[in-house]
């Protein structure tokens, strides 16, 4: 089957670092996407991983381990504007994205 | 300029009514989508069109009928609305029709449909 799991909600402090995990099960693998969705807004693309390892992009980094079916999004130097839901998604058997329910990240001052 | 725009943003209607949501993209993309995001926040693909041709129909009830007059527009018409149709409907577009590197999906701002 095809399945994606992410924690429902996480809380972190402004200026700190937070790691949002995602585990997935797919029949094949064609990469993993992370999107950010602020409340009441559209999801926007953050990152794409297809090879194992860490991809760094400014304050945000994304890690992938294909053997473990595992990815994480690492957010550094948290800012209040990072309060949002973070969605993990992988292509399914029809090459369309299967989405996790998202992790709601709450940043506290 | 908004890349993917959809209207209306909010829609409250009674059960049994018929309603439409319109979507337009100015990115020059070949593929457009309709997604549904339910109360549990799962995004689920409903339909996908590539150059006006339907390529994905994810077992959506026949009451939902998409129409793509050209590759920049994809409208969604819903007949006989039911309470369970209440959700956020996102229009989206991408250059290609398969999720892959470089094929970022761009979403519209969403249409909040409430059926009462």
Let me know the number of strands of chain A: 11
Largest sheet of chain A: 6 strands, mixed
Strand content of chain A: over 45%
Give the terminus-to-terminus CA distance of chain B: 34 Å
What is the 3D form of chain A?
globular
Number of helices of chain B: 0
Polypeptide structure, described:
- The complex is a heterodimer of chains A (109) and B (116).
- By secondary structure, chain A is mostly beta strands.
- Chain A is 0% helix and 57% strand.
- The model of chain A has no long low-confidence stretch (mean pLDDT 94).
- Chain B is built from no helices and 11 strands.
- Chain B has strands spanning 4-7, 10-13, 19-25, 31-37, 43-50, 53-57, 64-70, 73-78, 87-94, 106-107, 111-115.
- In chain B, the strands form 2 sheets. In chain B, strands 2, 4, 5, 6, 9, 10 and 11 form a 7-stranded mixed sheet that branches. A 4-stranded antiparallel sheet of chain B has the order 1-3-8-7, with no helix packed on it.
- The model of chain B has no long low-confidence stretch (mean pLDDT 93).
- Chain A binds chain B through residues 30-31, 33, 40-45, 48, 50, 85, 87, 89, 91, 94-97, 99-102, and chain B through 4, 40-45, 48, 56, 90, 97-101, 104-110.
Short description:
Chain A is an all-beta fold and 109 residues long. In chain A, 0% of the residues lie in helices and 57% in strands. Chain A is built from no helices and eleven strands.
From the structure above, extract its key features:
heterodimer; A: 109 residues; mainly beta; 5-stranded antiparallel sheet; 57% strand; B: 116 residues; 7-stranded mixed sheet; 11 strands; 54% strand; globular
Secondary structure topology:
The complex is a heterodimer of chains A (109) and B (116).
Chain A: E1 3-5, E2 9-13, E3 18-25, E4 32-37, E5 44-49, E6 53-57, E7 60-65, E8 70-75, E9 84-91, E10 97-99, E11 103-108
Parallel strand pairs in A: 2-11
Antiparallel strand pairs in A: 1-3, 3-8, 4-5, 4-9, 6-7, 7-8, 9-10, 9-11
Chain B: E1 4-7, E2 10-13, E3 19-25, E4 31-37, E5 43-50, E6 53-57, E7 64-70, E8 73-78, E9 87-94, E10 106-107, E11 111-115
Parallel strand pairs in B: 2-11
Antiparallel strand pairs in B: 1-3, 3-8, 4-5, 4-9, 5-6, 7-8, 9-10, 9-11
């Amino acid at each position: 089957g095809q399945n994606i799991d992410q924690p429902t909600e996480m809380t972190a402090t402004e200026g700190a670092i937070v790691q949002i995990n995602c585990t997935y099960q797919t029949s094949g693998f064609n990469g993993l996407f992370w999107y950010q969705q602020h409340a009441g807004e559209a999801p926007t693309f953050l990152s794409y991983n297809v090879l194992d390892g860490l991809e760094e992009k400014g304050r945000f980094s994304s890690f992938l381990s294909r053997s473990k079916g595992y990815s994480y999004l690492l957010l550094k130097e948290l800012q209040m504007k990072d309060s949002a839901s973070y969605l993990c998604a992988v292509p399914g058997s029809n090459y369309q994205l299967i989405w996790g329910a998202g992790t709601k990240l709450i940043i506290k001052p | 300029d908004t890349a993917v725009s959809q209207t209306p943003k909010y829609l409250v209607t009674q059960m049994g009514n018929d309603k439409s949501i319109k979507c337009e993209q100015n990115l020059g993309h070949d593929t457009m989508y309709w997604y549904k995001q339910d109360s549990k926040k799962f995004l689920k693909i409903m339909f996908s069109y590539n150059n006006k041709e339907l390529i994905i129909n994810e077992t959506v009830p026949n009451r939902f009928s998409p129409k793509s007059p050209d590759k920049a527009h994809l409208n969604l018409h819903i007949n006989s609305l039911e309470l369970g149709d209440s959700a956020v409907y996102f229009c989206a577009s991408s250059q290609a029709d398969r999720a892959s590197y470089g094929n970022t999906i761009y979403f519209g701002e969403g249409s909040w449909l409430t059926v009462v």
